[in-house]
Fold this protein.
Amino acid sequence: MLNDLKVGFLSAKSSIKRGNKKTSFFIIFVLALIFMNLIFLPSLINGMMGLFVGFVQDYTYGNIVVEPVEEKIYIENVDNVLKKIRSVTEVTGVAKRIEAGASLRYKQNVVGANIIGLIPKEEVGVSQYPNIVKYGEFLGELSRDEILLGSMIAGVGTGSEIYDNLGEVKVGSLINVTYSNGVERTYKVKGIHEGTFELTDLNAIVHFKELESVLGIEGEQKATSVVVRIANEGEEAYVKDKIIDVGVKEDVFTWQEKAETLVKQALQSIGSIDTMSKIVSLIVGASLIFIIIYINTLNRKKEIGILRAVGVSPNSIRISYIFISLFYVSLGIFLGLIMFFGLVFYFTSNPIVFYETLKIVPKVDFILLIKSILIMVGMSVVAGFIPAWFVTRQDMLEAIWGR
Amino acid sequence: MIQVKNLKRYYKTGDVIIKALNGVSFNVEKGEFIAIMGASGSGKTTLLRILGLIDHQTKGDYLIKELNLKILPEEQRRYYRLTQLGYVFQDYALINEMTALENVSILSLMADGSKKESIETAHEALKKVGLDGMVNRIPDKLSGGEKQRVAIARAIAKKPNILFADEPCANLDSKTSEQVLNVFKDLNEKYNQTIIMVTHEKWHTKFVSRIITLKDGLIISDKKIK
Ligand SMILES: Nc1ncnc2c1ncn2[C@@H]1O[C@H](COP(=O)(O)OP(=O)(O)O)[C@@H](O)[C@H]1O
Ligand SMILES: [Mg+2]
């Protein structure tokens, strides 16, 4: 077997060395493109996922979110819940929130929006809201008659014209808000925020206590959600269990659970296109190698017959073709990696922009990279082996006679 | 050393059966240099292929050193060819992508697995056939006589028990033929190499020690010359 390997290697080496260089380069180039196709689109999808995950974590759910049990509107005894959650070592930040629907009016413009009541200092380290204020300032602890507007409803963000907006609201403008329970308030605009996701820019933010008073639940220790941040990404499920263990009786979800259906829907169609194109390109790659090796075996049928006649083992001939396939595919992968990282570099400095604000930057998934390399290698070994198998199974004498 | 007993080889093409060998018997001693002669189609190649374990007889027995080769399974036949026999084909049958050295060394590598040794053996064999200066040339860059000598070097590199050659001079002019035949003669005289060579040129017989003549698959004469 070792001798088979050595002879196979020698035979492959001479065949590659003295074979047609242009053909070899062409094969390698096509394999490189195929390899790229396996990894580039996924890296873009990965980048999109990253954006999406960022949005879900940074604004809506954190790593883990606690919500009222079914059929209840509020989490009761929320400060007690916060205390329990903070007792879990992996938890790095907790914030309670109340949300309410309202319509906002500025001059003659009216816009419906979701208003989030939060405690400004709790949000630091839990969400990105404190960090995305573009004009003016974030709310302070004493903000009561102040409001923070997303740039889309304020009408100042790029692309905000596609939404209903208040039309050029500025910091310091006074706007009227009518809550869904009929309560009316007038707020001074304290700041306007703009994140990477338009959805965040469609929200308005007031102080938690302000919303409590609007809803008439002052001091009742109620909230509509509690957002939790943890130290290590990926430990969500584990920390969730710990939170339940310390006695939180509300519904606890990881962000993955909350986002699952959403992500699935968003990525399903693009994912299936990706799978299709991968399968097609793998078939193309396998056929390419198969045909190249097949033609080679046909051309060398007589030589192979002679090699066998003088005592070279069929295995070493098969192995030589596997070496040849491996040579093509490894150079193809190498070239493909160069091209891939070239593209990643390019699109990192020149991101693809969606809806004017969504910048999609490719994100390399090394597990996928290794998987793709293995798939390519496996495919080429099989595609190269089959014709080699056929040619060595043929009758030796017939091969020498050239039939 | 060799015993051939009533060897038959029939080819079946459609409904026609060609009796290429129709009962051939002879013995060979170590160190003999035998020419197999006969008209085209008389069965010379067929006989040599069976003796070289490249083809199977239809009937009859073929023994080397008392071993009846009929019983060997294919993998062992291959190993036997590799280690005990040398075969020179009519049309050189070299591997085009390999240099002279690689063409020769590949068989020693197959047999012994040592790259260094296989290269040494190949150099030695190429030197015996007078090609030490051209070891790195590929067949395309060699003349017909040089190619045939590479083929001979490949066949003798592992010092086979028996060397077979099927019309080794068929594609060569008479001067080159003489060089090649002298290579055989040297091998035979210096190393007591047993050689069985197919030829149909009368003048080739002056190099050999015995002539077996075939006609229509049968031996019509078998004579030794001293
Ligand atoms: N593969 C084959 N199939 C059918 N008939 C063959 C085959 N090879 C040889 N023959 C026939 O067998 C006879 C002997 O052929 P061969 O041994 O090649 O003769 P020689 O080498 O003496 O010219 C010829 O009649 C030839 O046509
Ligand atoms: Mg012949």
The mean pLDDT of chain B is 92. Residues 44 and 198 of chain B are 6 Å apart (CA to CA). The pocket of magnesium ion (ligand 2) is lined by residues B 44-45 (CB under 6 Å).
